[in-house]
Structures are given as structure tokens and as C-alpha cells.
Amino acid sequence: MNFSTVKNKMKKFSLLIFIIILIFSSCKPKDENVIRIGVLDGPTAISVIRLIDKPVQINGKKLEIIVKSDPQQIQALMMRHELDFAVLPTVMAANLFNRGVDYRMLACPVWGTLYIVTNNKDIKSFEDLSGRTVAVFGQGATPDVLLQREINRKGILQVKYDYSHAGNHEVAQALMQKRAEIAVVSEPLVSMLLTKNRNMHIVERLECEEFIRNSDVDIFVQSAFVVSNNFIEQHSELISEVSNAYALSCNFINEQPAEAARMLVAKGMMPDEQTAQTALPLCNIRYVSAFAIERETRRYLEIFHDFNPETTGGKTNVRDFIYQ
Q1: Angle of the 71-79 helix axis to the 3-24 helix axis, nearest 10
Q2: How do residues 205-262 score in pLDDT, each as one tens digit?
Q3: Which H/E stretch holds residue 173?
Q4: Of the candidates 59, 70, 60, 62, the residue with the CA atom closest to the CA atom of residue 37
Q5: How far is C-alpha 321 from the chain's CA centre?
Q6: Quick check: 107 and 294 in contact, CB under 8 A?
Q7: How many Å apart are CA 276 and CA 265, to the nearest integer?
């Protein structure tokens, strides 16, 4: 990996953020009777399926879910002040906050959803990656950083990285068509691969654990549920109600997976109920308030800061980032 190339890209990305902020900083949501939550297609959209299937009102305001396919689209809406709440990768959320996009973290609803998947039956463990090529989407992004971290920690040698695939869908397609032998894939595409091809199997989940408080603690704080400073100033009394509605949706996924699977198929988010039920436990949906995982969040961001400080906006102190 060329570190200087990644660093230069991050600098250009940071400049672009500030240009967009200057252009769109005066934009405001038009309808004051709507609370807008932006989420990404995939596990985060799955986590709000109950709110999509049965829209709720909070203090007379309709809760509207806006689903986008790319984190950059969520980011653009945030910078135009068109979202009251959003769910996006924690590293991106922290980066935006540290660069002046004032959204604070309320919770982590989706934990690790990245898996090393292969179509080669002889590859059964991390050690079998030695001397092979792994397809991974997003050079310098979450999948790449965590994969390199695990490979370095376990001392796996001569692993090559293929960054030629633009996103999760492309890398999964390459695996299905055998243009790639091993790849890092995120749910729910992992489950789709497993149900479509019997030769496909999970080698390992990309984990992110550290020894904290006398036990191994999962610090894979992959997603951040954030609230805008505008909403905090104008409707702080509604934040707990929105949070509770989201938490109930996450609980619903785990408590009633069959019904959740039916909803996902009905809304066109999954191809069939069998695939949906396979995907749900692998999505690791678990709503945990941010103030309860402050240390874990900081440790998680430090992984990326150590890789390249630009990824987190140059800071890892989460005290201001986390909404108290």
C-alpha cells in the first residue's frame, strides 16, 4: 500500500468537505413537521425496517427514513443540513465532526459486519491467506484498515491487496463470478453469496477486540447514530424519544427475526426470507448508547488515526463528539 497516495487523497477529500460546507451552509430543512433520519443501504437500513414498515410520529412530527447507497450521499445531506439524524460509519462521522460538521454521536446500532469470504474450499483460516490476493473495497477505508491490522497482528506474510473493485456490490460480484478468490464483503451481501453458491463460505469475521476492564471487549464500533446540533438546540426534548424508537427497531430485529425478514422482503430490501433470516444475525445489530461505550469508541478511532490521522480529522478525543 502506498501511504503517501492515501494521505494525498485524504487531503483532497478534506478540502472538498470545506468547499461544500461553504456552499451549502445556509441550507435548511423545508418541512418542520418531519424528522429526517438518513441511513445507508445494507445493515443500517435493515436496523430501521420497523420504522420503515410502520412509520411513527413523535410529538406530531413524522419520522422519515431516507435510504442512500453511498456514505458520501449521507455526508452531503448532513452538510446541507437536510438531516436531523443519520447513521454512517463511525470513522466518517468523527471526521466530519472534527472538521466542523456538527453532528454528535448518540449510539452505535450496527457492529462488525465485515467478513472474509472465499469460493475456494481449501481456504479455511486467516493463515491460509498467506501468499494470496484479497479483494477489498476502499483503499484506506474501514475494510482495508481492519484487514491489514489483523494480518499484521497475526503475522500473515505475502498477502496482496486488490483494490480494483469500487464497492461492496462490485467485490461480491467479482467473488461470485470467480474474478476474485478471496474478498472482504459486508452484509447483507455475505448471506446472498452463501445462499447462491454452495462453494462460498466465510473464512473469518473481521473482528476488533481489545483487552479492556479485565476482559476481551468488542470495540468494533462500526456505525454511529448521530444528531445534528440544530436539532439539539431546537428539539432536545425529542432526542430520547427518537432514540427509543430506533432502539426498539433494533430490538425487534433480534426478537422477531422471522417477521423482520418478511418486512425486508416486502420492502424489496432482501430477495427472499431465507436469505434475510441468514443475514440478520450476521448484521450484528445491537443498539448501545454512545456514553456507555466512550472508551471503546476512542480505541476504535485510534486504530484509524494510527493508520492515517486524516481519516479521523486528526483527533481521537470523543468527549465532545459523544452527545451526553
Answers
A1: 40
A2: 988 876 555 556 788 999 999 999 999 999 999 999 999 999 999 999 999 999 999 9
A3: helix 168-176
A4: 62
A5: 17
A6: no
A7: 8
The per-residue pLDDT for range 24-64, each reduced to its tens digit, is 444 444 567 899 999 999 999 999 999 999 989 999 999 99
Closest CA to 109 of 245, 246, 216: 246
Q: What is the CATH number of domain 3-112+219-312?
A: 3.40.190.10
Q: Where in the chain is the domain with CATH 3.40.190.10?
A: 3-112+219-312, 114-207
How high is the pLDDT of residue 297? 95
For cell 476504535, the residue is 300
Cα–Cα distance list, 283 to 114, 136, 186, 192 (Å) = 9, 19, 8, 13
The answer as to CATH 3.40.190.10 being correct for domain 114-207 is: yes
Residue 220's nearest CA partner among 293, 151, 305, 116 is 293
Closest to 218 (Cα-Cα) out of 95, 81, 74, 108: 108
pTM beyond 0.90, yes or no:
no
Cα 62 from chain centroid?
25
